[in-house]
Amino acid sequence: MAEEDPSWREWMRAAQQGDRAAYAALLTAVIPPLRRLVRARWPRAGLAEIEDAVQETLLALHGSRHLYDPARPFMPFLFGIMRFRASDVMRHTRRAAARETPIDDVPETSGALATNSTVDQTLDAGTLRAAIARLPAGQRQALEMTKLREMSLEEAATESGLSVTALKVATHRGIKALRKLLDGSK
Prior knowledge:
Elements: H1 6-16, H2 20-41, H3 47-64, H4 74-99, H5 118-122, H6 125-133, H7 137-148, H8 153-160, H9 164-184
C-alpha cells in the first residue's frame, strides 16, 4: 500500500466539515498514488481502465466521505474503496470486451467491418429482379416505387392511386413474399 501523507487525514477531517480547499488538496494529492495502486493491482489494465477506476474511486470517496473516521489512517479507507470500485470497472471492461469488437486497429476499408449478411453478399441483381417479377402486380408495384425508385409513401400513393395505408400493406406483404421466394431459390 502507498505511503500515507500525514496531512491527508487532516485534509479529510477538514473536508468533512465543509472545507472545499482542503478537499481539493486531498483529491489532488491522492490521485498519483491511487493510479499506482490500481496499476499495481491490475497490471494488464490499459490506461483508460486505470483512469476509469481512479475516477470511480474518487466518486465513491466523495459519496462516502462522511463514513471516514479521522482517528484512523486515511489510506486504508481509500484503498478499501478503490479495491471494490476498481474491481467493478475491470469486471465491466472484461464483460464489454467479450461483446465488442475493437476497431482501433482495423483499417477503414477492412472487410472485418462489413455489415452485410451472407444472404446480402451472395444475392445478385438478376436473382432479385427475377424474384420481384414473380410477385403479384400490386406488391411488385409497391416495392418498385418505395424501395427501388425510393419514392416517399405520399409520392407513390399519388402515382399508384392507392392510399398510403394500402401502399404500406402492399410493401410489407411484398417484402415478406420476396423473402420466401429468395429463401426457396437456394
